[in-house]
Predict the structure.
Amino acid sequence: MVGGTAVQEAKTEFAGQERDRRISEALPIAWQQLLTGPDELLSELLAEAVAGVSGHRPDPEVVAQFLFDFTPPTNVALPPPVSEPTRTDPLRTLTHAVNATSFTGKQPVAFTLSGQRHEVATWRELLTGSCDLAASHVGDRFAGLVQTIRGSKRTYFASSPDGLVAPLAIVGGQLFVEGNLSANDCVRVARRVAAAAFGDEAELTVESAPRD
């Protein structure tokens, strides 16, 4: 009985050590992945920290470019994970494929939504243009649909400019969308609008080019 208990304790200790080792090795890899395609929460946290130090909040594009250019000092290979049954989530796979491209350091050329192509010069034009096209497709339901599209710490759509950092008028001035967004976030919000209005965020495709 004593021997069995000792063996079990040894197994438990070994499992704990293996878990700690994998976490330590995975941390720099996960950090590098975040920096390769900075998400909204990471960008927001960094912007808040900069504002606290300097008293000035940086533009989303500046934050995104900094994260895109920054290279972590350590790059280790993650060991093969323990074999587990593979589970495929079609929605997650689609979302990852659609959002895989980073638009940091690029300028928009055009976007196509539900077969309609429109040339644009800025990421804000892409955002407002896609919103207006989606609104024309769903009509009065648009305001209700976009109210569910929110960030982790901020609101993207409002019936008035109050509460938005850089409000942009859409739907003939009936609604406003947040314009204080990075290129990636403009595309991300536009694709969520496409998903709400057309049932599939892949309805929106984006053409871009390296920034001059």
Observations:
- Strands lie at 106-113, 116-119, 157-158, 167-170, 175-178, 204-210.
